[in-house]
Design brief:
With 149 residues, the chain is an alpha+beta fold. It has helices at 9-21, 88-98, 117-122; strands spanning 29-31, 37-42, 51-57, 62-67, 70-73, 102-107, 112-116, 129-133, 141-142. The mean pLDDT is 91.
């Protein structure tokens, strides 16, 4: 059982959202040394490399979401004018990863990212995409099996 008294305020607040929205995530939650909530949630039908990593980061005071080769920062969560107020955009981003609308990708240059599959396909850098990783594997591609638009 995780000691929630060691969580920073962002961790306590985000854990409450997690327990309602994705109860299974709680089984994979831990507190790191800085008081951040860290969740490492494996895809249900993928190898160990398909891991959704979420941090309610105490140092940055924002949600950081990683999947595949990339990660994303949520931004301010206490400001009513901010996109991630109350974790709105972070919750949507996680839901989009789980529904495979958002994927991780890497480029031939070695750079990597995470983003909406449709946006990645329509970007000028599409020709440089080396691999794509989606939550359930539906959209996975590597350069060895050609990445179609």
């Amino acid at each position: 059982m995780m000691d929630t008294t060691k969580l920073a305020p962002i961790g306590r607040e985000f854990l409450a959202v997690v327990q309602v929205r994705w109860p299974d995530f709680s089984k994979h939650a831990a507190v790191d040394g800085s008081g951040s909530l860290v969740i490492e949630y494996p895809s249900p039908n993928r190898p160990a490399d398909a891991l959704l990593w979420i941090s309610a980061d105490a140092d940055f005071d924002e949600i950081i979401i990683g999947f595949g080769a990339g990660h994303s920062h949520g931004g301010p969560w206490k400001d009513p004018a901010a996109a991630d107020f109350g974790f709105r955009s972070s919750v949507q981003f996680i839901d989009d990863i789980l529904s495979e609308t958002v994927v991780g990708y890497s480029l031939r240059s070695g750079q990597s990212g995470i983003g909406r599959l449709d946006d990645i396909k329509s970007a000028p850098s599409w020709e440089d995409v080396r691999s794509i990783q989606s939550w359930l594997g539906t959209h996975d591609r590597t350069s060895s099996n050609h990445i179609p638009r």
